[in-house]
Amino acid sequence: MHSCSEATQSQYFSVYEKWVRFCEKNYKNPMDSNLNNVLEFLTNVFENNLSYSSVNTARSCLSLVLNTVDGFTVGNHPLVVRLLKGVARLRPPMPRYQTTWDTNTLLKMFDKWPKNENLSLSQLSYKLVSLLLLSTGQRVQTIHSIKIDNIILSSRVEILIPDRLKTSGLGRPQPTLILPYNELKSICVASTLETYLYRTAEMRKSQSLFVSLCKPHRAVSKQTLSRWLVLVLKEAGINVNKYKSHSFRHCSVSKAFVKGIDIDTIYKCAGWSNSSRTFARFYNRPFDNSEGYSNAVLSL
Question: So where are the chain's domains?
């Protein structure tokens, strides 16, 4: 069980509950590695209008809990593999975002805000979490893991992340976030971090970087950080029905690529291996400028 993360265990537990109910309804033994039952269950998951990802998760769960069939794990049996190929053709997995928003939209808004010292705690919090994500290309999970004891202030800011993350693995180094000081103070993530640490020093009740906006100022959850990010996008005029908190990662790595940062550096900062195709398949997105195209064509 420890080979799976808590998030994976939670996903698998949900699938296993459905598998048990399916077996009970059809008078089957849930621990019986009967291939027909497995194929019927996966088909049932698909017919409930769930995505390819959901069917694939169900396959992985059954592979973990059931015995092998014909010398194959359940998920790698040729018939199950064939079934998943059929699901992929009928309901192909699609990346969430086909385009991304431009970082300039958000940075111009921050540039118009008052100085960091004059911002409210909520504005300062929203600004800091946004700049951290844009400047590092990391997930919300990584930013949520930051502890103030692991922040090193010098000629630049270094943040060590010892906690296990989604990108953690054997032989992979844990990320170290490097934040240089920017001459333009209004969008300098290092300066914003310094101000935030000073403002929250006496009110904080934990070692977590981000604290709640109301007393008793305890550590916030990842869901709270995601909610803050959506509020920032909305205030900047970005379509929050289309773009959510994870779009910051897409936006960051796409802008770095457009600005000429070499692909190896992007992979390293984002936590991908050199052989990973994740960036090309899911993250390298053009900026959403469809309105600009239309306006340019229809201008007199």
Answer: 6-90, 103-283
Q: What's the CA gap between 115 and 95, in Å, rounded? A: 38
pLDDT, residue 286, reads: 58
For residue 262 the two structure tokens come to 């070499």
Kindly state which CATH superfamily the domain 6-90 is placed in.
Tyrosine recombinase, N-terminal domain (1.10.150.130)
Q: What is the pLDDT of residues 2-20, one digit of tens each?
A: 777 777 888 889 999 999 9
Instruction: Report the Cα–Cα distance between both ends of the chain, in Å, rounded.
Output: 65
Q: Which helix (H) or strand (E) holds 86?
A: helix 78-90
CA–CA separation, 17 vs 75, rounded Å?
A: 18
Tens-digit pLDDT profile for residues 97-137: 677 888 889 999 999 999 999 999 999 999 999 999 999 88
103-283 to CATH, choices 1.20.120.430, 3.40.50.1400, 1.20.1250.20, 1.10.443.10: 1.10.443.10
Look at the block and give the residue holding tokens 């010292």. Answer: 117
For residues 1 and 21, what is the distance between their CA atoms, to the nearest angstrom? 22
How many angstroms separate the CA atoms of 140 and 268, rounded?
17
Pairing of strands 157-160, 151-153: antiparallel
Q: Quick count: other Cβ atoms within 10 Å of Cβ 96? A: 12
- Write the pLDDT tens digit of every residue in 50-89: 888 899 999 999 999 899 999 999 999 999 999 999 999 9
pTM: 0.74
